[in-house]
Amino acid sequence: MIATTSTIDELIRNQNPFAGHIVVRPQQIWGKSYPDVSSINAHASNAVFDAVEKIRNGKRETVGITITAEKGLGKSHIISRIRHRLQAEDNTLFIYMSKYDNLNQIKYQFQQTVASSLRAFGNQKVMQWQEIAAALINDAKKCNYTPQQYISSIYPTWLNKYSTRTIDSLTEAVLKIKTDVNNPYIIRAILWTLSTAHAHYATYWLSGLEVTQTQADILGLPNPKNEDREAEALSNVRQILDITSHYRVPVICFDELDITDISDTGFTAAQIIANLTKDLYNSLKQGVLLLAMYPEIWNDQIRALPQAEAVVDRLASEQSDRQPVALKYLNSDDIVALVKHWLKDFYQEHNQNPPHPLYPFDESKLRELGKGKPTVRSVLKWCAENFVNPDLIKDNLNQLDPNTTGRCVSHTIHPVKPYFDNEIDNVEASIDTLMEDEITIGSALWLAFVSLIGKTIEGITIEEIEEVPNQDYIDFKIVGNRKKVKIGVDVLQQASGNTIQAALNKLIDYRKFHLTRGCLVRSKKISPNAKLAQKYLQQLLQKLGGEWVLLQAQDIKPLLAIYFVWYNSESYELTEEQIFDFFNKKQLAINNPLIREILSDPSGQEPTNLTDDELPMRIPQTVSSADSIELNL
Question: Edge to edge, what strands does the sheet with 485-491 contain?
Answer without folding.
Answer: 456-457, 460-466, 476-480, 485-491, 517-522, 547-550
